[in-house]
Design a protein that fits this description.
Blueprint lengths: L2 H16 L4 H6 L7 E3 L2 E9 L7 E10 L5 E7 L3 E12 L2 E7 L2 E3 L3 E4 L5 E8 L8 E8 L4 E9 L1
Parallel strand pairs: 2-11
Antiparallel strand pairs: 1-2, 2-3, 3-8, 3-9, 4-7, 4-10, 5-6, 5-9, 10-11
Length: 157
Amino acid sequence: MNLKFKTLIRLFSFLLVNNLTTTYLLATDLPVDEGIQASKLQISDVWIRAMPPGHMMSAAYFKVHNLSSESISIISVTSADAQSCNFHQTKTVDGIVKMQALESLEIPSQDVVQLQPAGIHLMLMGIKKPLQVGEKIPLLLQFSNGTKIAVDAQIRR
């Protein structure tokens, strides 16, 4: 075995033992943190609502700050722990609460967009394992300018 391969195996074993991230984050070499800044974007306060056992859906919330001089959109979100991730906006129409799917999430220039309960949120559907409070689930956000940011979302009540 060559030295590069051995080093990669050691690193992978370390990460598995410490449950720090998933293998796709290793392969893409993306930053993972509670407050991520990639180029002119900041992602913070990332969390997912804990659900009772057996539920295959939940919602994720976070804050995105666009420090650039141009509007930018999150065009997709993926997770190794969910079959799909889609943005929704909760609206009340004639006294009836409805969720409307969003194709993407625009973050205006020099502005902050806050995903929150009863507002804009990220639906995680087809969750592949029970969500345990305190555990972290990886999310990969892809932006309209080509930037990809990996974040860990903590499970909360």
